[in-house]
Every structure is written in C-alpha cells, then in structure tokens.
Amino acid sequence: MTEQLAWLIPVLPLIGFLINGLGYKKNPKGLVGLVGCATVLGSFILSILVFFDIKANGAKTIDLYEWISVGTLKIPFSFLIDQLTSIMLLIITGVGFLIHVYSTGYMHDDEGYGKYFAYLNLFVFFMLLLVLGSNYVIMFIGWEGVGLCSYLLIGFWFKKTEYANAAKKAFVMNRIGDLGFLIGIFMLFSTFGSISYADIFPQAQTASTAVLTTITLLLFVGAMGKSAQLPLYTWLPDAMAGPTPVSALIHAATMVTAGIYMIARSNILYVLSPISMAVVAGIGLATAIFAAVIALTQNDIKKVLAYSTVSQLGYMFLGLGVGAFTGAFFHVMTHAFFKALLFLGAGSVIHAMGGEQDMRQMGGLKKHLPITWFTMLMGTLAIAGIPPFSGFFSKDEILAHAFEVSPTIWAIGVGGALLTAFYMFRMFFLTFNGKFRGTEEQHHHLHESPASMTIPLIVLAVLSVFGGFVGVPEALHGSHLLNEYLSPVFGQSTQILNAAHHGHLSHETEYALMGASVLGVLISIFYAYTVYVRKEVVPAAETAPRSGLEKASYNKFYIDEIYNAVFTRPLDSLSQLFYRILDKSIIDGVVNGFGQLTQWSADKFRRIQTGYIGNYLFMMVVGIILILVFNFLF
Amino acid sequence: MSSIIIIAITAIVVLYLGLYKVKSALLPVSVLGLLGAAASLVCVWDKNISYFNDMLVFNNYAIAFSILLIATTILIFLLSGNYFEKISSNVAEYYTILLFALSGGVVMVSFQNMSMLFIGIEILSVSMYIMAGIKKTDSASNEAALKYFLMGSFATGILLFGIALIYGATGSFNLVQIAGKASEQPLLFYAGVIFMLIAMTFKVGVAPFHFWTPDVYQGAPTLVSSFMSTVVKTAGFAAFLRLFGSAFTSVPAIWTVTLVVMVVLTLLIGNITAAFQQNVKRMLAYSSISHAGYMLIAILLLGQASPNAILIYSVAYSIASVASFGVMVAVKEQKGSDDLSAFNGLGRTNPVLAFVMTVALCSLGGIPLTAGFFGKFYIFGVAIAANYTWLIAIAVLMAAVGIYYYFKVIIAMYLRESENSESIQLSLAYKFVLIFCIMITILLGIAPALITNIL
Questions:
Q1: What ranges do the domains of chain A cover?
Q2: Bridge partners, residue A73, by sequence
Q3: The pTM is what?
Q4: Mind listing the UniProt keywords for this protein, alphabetically (chain B) (predicted)?
C-alpha cells in the first residue's frame, strides 16, 4: 500500500498549491479554502494509513526515479518512510490540516486569501519533502523550500516595510545556517561517496572522529539557523510579523523543528562524535535559558510565544545532545500540539481585539472568549509541565537524561522550566484576568471566534492534554509506546551510548527529580498569580525606567543591536569601502570593459555579415583554403 | 524504412488534397501520417533492421532522432494552422514540401552508406531552398532562397568531392567498410575527411561557414525558419555524428584542431553578434549558430557519451526553439514587427505567452530546472571527460553572454510598458503546442533521466 500511495502525500498539497496559485485572482473563496484544506486532509489520511503500515511491516524505501546521475554522484529521487518519518508526517499533515481550517476563519477578510492558501499548501509540500527524502539532497530541497515559504509568509503583508524587513532578516539568517548545512552535505559526499542515508549510516563508524565532528558541527550550523538557536535565533521573534496561523504552523509546530529532525535523522553520526553532542547540548541549554529570560519581560503576546518557542527548541536540542533522541522527538510532538494551540489561541485573542497584540491593552478576556480561555489554559499547563499534561512527560524525559549526564545541566534545565512556567502564566493572567485595559471601541468589538477557529483549538487542546500518554515513563508504570515505536531508528545509537557510559537512573531518583521540578513549577505559577492576579501589576509602559537585568531582558539583551554593531555596521562600512574602491573602479571597469569589448566586437562581427553573397563565398573559400593548408602543410 | 514510405505517401496525398481544394483536411492528414510514421518507428525499437544491402540501418540511434524530427515537425504543423494560408494561396505545397524535407531528414539519420547520406541531404536541402523562397512576392524571401541555394550547392559540391575521395581511398560507400580500410590510402582519405567535414559544418551552420544562416533565417517565413533551426539542424548533427562516429573513428582524429577552432569561432560569433541584435528573429538566428557551437563539442570529442549528449541537446533545443518561434509568430502577427520593442509589456497583456517565452528562453540559455540546462550539462560532461577544461571555460562564458541577450527579451516582456494593451488571441492548437513544449522543457529539467539513458 505504502509503495503505491506514499508519493501522493506530498503531491496532494502541491496540487492544492497549483490550483490556488494559478487561480489566485479568480478562484472563489469557498473553493480556495476547500482545496487548501481538503488536499492536506487527504495527505493526513494517507499518513495515517502509512503509519499503520510501517508499524506492521517496518521501514520502506520508495524509489521514484533517478534524478541526477553524473559519474559517481547518483541522486535518486526517492523517499524513505520509517518510524521517524511517519510520525513527522502525522504531525505536519495533522496539525497542518487544523491550521488550514483555522485559517479559513482567521484570514477570511484578507484580500490575499487565495495567495495565502497557495503559500500554505506549498509550505506543506516542501515540509513533507523534507521529511520524506531518502537522502540529504532531497532534504535540502525541502529545507530551502520551507525557507522560501517562510519568507513569503512572514512578508505576507509586505506593504509594511518592517514586515518585509523581518522576512528579509529571516531569509538572510537562514542562509548563514544553510551554508553550513550545504558544506556538511559536500563533506558527507566526499567522505562516504554518497548522500543517501542508506549508504552513509551503515558505514558511519568507518570515518574518523575528527571528520565526523566537522560534518556534524556543520550540519548543526544549518540546524541553528532553521531551528532558531543561539546565535542565529534573532529572526524567529521578528518572524511574528506574518499572519498568526503561519506563526503556529511554520514558526512553532513544523518548520523550526526541521533542525531537530535533521539531527535525529543523523543520530548515528552525532553519537560517534562526543564533541558535537556536547556542543548541541550546550547551545540548546544556553538558548533555552536565554530565550526564557527574554520572554519574562515581553509585552507583545506573540513575542512571548516566539521566545518561548526558541526556548523550547533549546530544550529539544538539549535532549538530542544528552542522547535523549526519543525524548527530544517526543517534545517535538507535544510542542507541536501545545504551541500550535497557544499560537492559535493568541490569534483568536488578537482577532477579537481587532489586531491588538500588546498585553497591556488586554485583560479580563475570560468572559468574552470562554473557549479560547479554556483551551489556552490547557496549553499553558502543558507547556509549564504540570502532570499529566503532555509537556510534562516530554520535558521530564529530556531532563531525566540530562541528569544522567550531569546534575548541573539538570539543575539549569529545571531553572529554565521555572522561568517557562512564570512567563507563560504571566501572559495567561495578563490576557484573561483582571479588568479590560483596552479602548472602548475594542471592548465593544470583543467576541468569541467562529467555529472554524474554535474547533481546531479544541482538537489541539485535547491533544495537548492527552498527547503525553504515548510516552509515559517506566517509572510511572507506563509502557512508553513512542520509545518502542522509534527504537529501530535510534536503536544503534542507544546501544553505543549505553556502552560508553552511565547506567540507568533508579526509579526513586526519577520520582525525586519529577517531584522537585513539579514543585518548582507550582511555586513559580503561584508567584505569577500573586503578582499579576492578586496585585494586578501591569507591565510598565515603553519609556518607564527599568532596573539593570530587567532592562536588559526587556530589550532582548540588545542582541539585535550588538549584531548590528559587530557584524552589520562593520560589514556595511567594509562594503561601502569595497563599493567605492574595488567595485566602482576595478570590477565595474573590468565588467564594463567586457561589455564594451562585446559591443565593439559585435559591431565588427556584424560587419562581416554584409549581405553580399560574393563576400560570403569569398570568406568561405578563404576558410576552406586555411583548413586545407593547415591540415596538409603542417 | 516504412516510416520514410509513410511520410512520402502522406506528402503525395496532401498534394492531391490541395489539388482538389480540401484545405481543411491538410493538417489532420499530415499529422495523422506523421503519427503513423512515428508509430512504425516505435515498433522497430531495438530491432536494428537494415535495408537494401545496408544502405539504411534503423538502429536505436536512427529511431530516436527520427522520432525527434517527426515530433518537431508535428509541433510546427500544429502551429502553422492558418499561418501558411495568410502568406500564400498554395497551402498544400507547404505541407508537401516540408514532409519531403522530413523524409530526407529521416534518411540522413539512418544512412549506413554515403550515397544515402548524399541523397538525404539533397532531399532535405532542395526542399528547404524552395521553402525559403515560398513567399514569391517578397523580395527578402527570394533573396534568402537564392543565397541559400547558391551557397548550399557550393557545399554540396564539396560534399560530393569528399565522398569521391573517400571512395577512391577505400573503394566503398559503406561506413563499416570505410572504417576497415581507412588506413590504406591515408592522404586521399584524410583529404576526403576534411572535405566532408567542411560540407557537414556548412550544413549545420558552423563558423566560418555560417554566413547563410542569419540571412536565410530572417528572409524565410518565420515558421520555415523554425523548421530550419530545429529539424534541419538536428538532422544535420545526427548525420554528422553518425558519419564521424562510425566511419572515421579508426584513424587518428586529425580534425580535432580544426574543429576546436571552429567551435571557439562559432561560440564567439554566434553569441557576441546575437548580443547586438535588436530584432528578436535575427537574435534567435545568431543564437542558433551558437547552439551549433555547443553541439559541435560532442562531435569534436567523440566518445561513448556523444550520441546521448547530442540527443538531449537536440531535444531541449528543438522544443524550446519551437516555443520561442511560436511566440514570436504570434507577436509579429499582432504587432506587425518582431523587434525587441514589440515584446514590451507582453507579461501584462499576455501572461501565458510571456511565461512560455520565458521558460523557452531560460531553456535556450541553460538555466537549471529546464531541459536546456541538462543539454549543456551533458555536452560539457563530454568535454570534461576529455580534459578540455579550457574549452568549457569559453563555452560557459559564452553561455553567460547568451543569458544576457535572452534576458533582454524577458526584461522587455516584464519590465517595459507596452503602448497598446490588447491581448493576443490564440487558437486552441496553438496554445496546446506552446504549453506542451514548456511542459516537456520543465519535465526534462526535473527528470532528465527520462531521456539520458536511452542511447
């Protein structure tokens, strides 16, 4: 079954893109929404079938056709569908479908409705290509494709200059990462003589550690860009300029996890290079804390969620770095549920507020938006890590593995979790509790969103609450279905890691760790409750004086300004210098010289073409004589 | 063989249809006949049948190129809908003569005996002399025909001389026997090879024997030019490669230096002169010279990969040329001119036409994701395998010049404003051909493996 139908999974959204893209001016809105949603739903249904097929029969490779074949370089256009891919397929098409449905309500009055759905379908197509590819080149095509769609959708309202700039920033930042990824692929080819997973992974152990470290670090640079890790994360908060469903789908649930997918896919390479594992864990942990600290003081509801995404992605990388591949992937899954939910909920709030995103203008929305309120509460509890919500299990699994490697990492990780709980409830209380702080007009406009928006919220809320049960740890008498399912993918790596060091934690230690983190989170929530509900503190206005650390956090640690001063401005001046000296006089001179030479010689060549047949024949005869003389006299 | 017979009979039937004034049946009958001819070729794939004591051998090489020639002809016929009726009253003659020319082309790609090569070339050439001058009242068309005829007969003379010398040296017309006896009379033989080389390079329009091309292409009716630059050129190159690849490989390649100089000259003259043109038709004529230069590289460095490289290049080049000539005819019909300025604003008034033109020009320029990219890619692959890196450097530089003049048209279409905003109405068959061409172009750009391994 899988062999015959799997190719349809990416092709359906592509067809949707073609229909909506070619007819974006003419298609009626009803048709656009129907095509957009139905194609992704079709892919979702196929993904479910594929999931069960893989579960029963194991991984499959589907060769579509030989794409490029030059010398020893062979790039087949083929798909590898294994356990990892099949779960990614479910996340992408499932969450993708819900967000498409939500978009039919959210974007209903936008004049670019058709264009929006075309882009969104195209995104789903590329994302599916990314996870389906059986080699790094197909993955790279998907990787670049989703980057393009992200760019198009961030700048969807491109008439606003700052939005267009945010899109450009995302594109440029990603390019830096892509360069690393690309060089990594080149090195893979030169080391292993192939770019297919099936050829590379079995012979991974034959390569030297130094080479593997270089390759994996280069690939990680790519992941840093796409998955918004330090130091390449600054594009993601700005990417919130796009429509909110886009933030939910691309910048929270799917695209930004591509980096994690890539490392999880290449797990064997990473396991063989301890240095790379340490770097991944270190960067992940640093990002998790850093972004959480920034999120503490943000007042834009989407910015809070954006920094929280960066921070959660950091946890996933931490998980990969400490060898908790299943845990990291588990977190990808649960995060897709609750972060999509939170973004869509925020979208519902923004929709009700008539486009307002500043939480200082909100408050008391609980009674106006009951469904949004309740579903967002579920999402917030899930991200905060309260048992038995989904986020608890996945985060706990990562932290437990971190403890095996080093208690210090665990402690810092838990510290980050406390910050997470605080800023998420800060956001939640500021939005829904207290008195309404907006204008009279906004107050009048408040309403619950239409069913097309609330139903996806409810579905995602259910998933956020119960999604964690696929990975209940042994210590809690669960059977960890996910771990079992994914074991063919990560089995070899786990063996290598287990052989290298650390035994398993005892159940008592695990209970203690869980207890400590849950207690901390509860205290943190209580503190947020005291500050923002009891005392009704409202964050100070833009210009109010702030103390040292708060000011730094509020201003996002001035990272954008630092990048500006350290990279952008020197580069600008350097490029100015080059422009004036090198470009204007030397390169332009050479280029224009060539241009002039071409023009000049074209003019001369043209004159040979006199139109007189006598001349032509004469020149032909001269040519023949020259050829004969040359060939027979020399 | 049956394909040649079917084409010839179709041509005669069409001529009679013209006599009895059944104009509406001309196109369907011709296309049906051609489809039949193509089908008969498909049936003998892999069979390697030879006819008349090895005069003609239909191996896969011959079949692949014959099908390409027939397919290109069908596309051009579909484009011609009422084009021929507008320029002349004797429409049947157009179809007939082009069909005869095509049968000559099929002979050229399937010959195994040099007399058949000569016959094929002559059937094709004589038909084309007539076609170039078919606008009887148009002096430019007459001039083109006369020039083509005078220079063509000059080249034919040289070809015959070359065949005679080789016959003198080996006592045979058969390619296989020639290859076996090549070293018996080296001086005569080499002289023969050089003369044949000159004649063949003339037929495909390589510098310094390219002078006829721009004048003839411009003077002839546009669709006839498109036939010349696709079918005639493809048949010429296929015959060239068949001749050199089988008969002359047993002796040292004395022609290498000569051909290298010709390649470089052709690339330079074709591309640089095209960059100067303000008339799109003339620009395409010069660019077709430059394409001959790229294809010549595969013959210069004869190897295992050459037949396939030439085939891919021919396919890519033929379909992109048909599409671009087709758009040009449509534009000329409405604007009355095929200057660059006639294309201004086409992107706004006729997005489909502009898109077709853009894809076709990108393919001619060799931009990735189009068939043209892989055409150049495999040609360059042949040269890299033979360690001719410096030649590739020149070819790539010239390809960059090519991008410059192809993009002049694209810029005109999308970035310039047009004076009138009327859109051009096209018939269904016309649209079908254009869209079919670019679909194939893109398909082969994404999945080149469909044709890269068939020879």
A1: 1-134, 135-554, 561-633
A2: A70
A3: 0.72
A4: Cell membrane, Membrane, NAD, Quinone, Translocase, Transmembrane, Transmembrane helix, Transport
